[in-house]
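We include this case.
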Amino acid sequence: MNRTGMPSVDETPCALKATGITKRFGHRLVLKGISLALNRGERMAIFGPNGAGKTTLMRILSTVAAPTSGKVVVDGVDPREEPLEARRRIGVVSHHPYLYDDLTARENLRFFGRMYDVPNLEERIDEVGRLVGLSARLDDRVGTFSHGMQQRIAMARALLHDPALLMMDEPEAGLDQDALGLLGELLGGPRTEDGAGRAAIIVTHHLDLGLALSDRIAILAEGRLVFESGSAGMDPAVIRALYSRHTTTRAGKGGGPR
């Protein structure tokens, strides 16, 4: 059964499957046939220089933008056929918190919770407030928060509807060391209904952090996945060497969306 209680075409789908993704802006081909699959409970870190296409890829994988060609399936749901259901299965954290400054943290979470029809919403708001360490500030206006505190509320918002997949685009921006440790806690442990754990894709320039948070790593350069591997036992120095090898020769060609 799927998360809505209705039969699914694929009873054991990947958390995310992308096949042959391309994206063109005018004459510029930004993404060039990207394919990847993420199992339930699996976490992938994607590294790449500015202009590699990372943000464009994340927008497509999170169903915010459509690919020029190729297909994305989220937890067994095709966003082209069921866009709202696909988005219910995704939580997004980016370097911008996307919150309403004039509302309290609780009011922000209540607004997003109603969009997703979260059951027992007030209890769930209290729960995610505790998870991100801001229970005492839930009734304060978000505009009075530091950027790091706003990022914590953004993490709470992303978790509010218990998504099968977290999409994190430079989530470390503005976070202190305690909050960086919180990222690992939020990603760890089973959360989905089948107990397999929540899957996540993390885009970051922070190689050590990405390695610590992930089961697999990938390097994106000039719109292509040029390297992919499991991260178990991999030394940070090895990651830096691999990153340099796969991106240095492409440096300076620049331009285009990230």
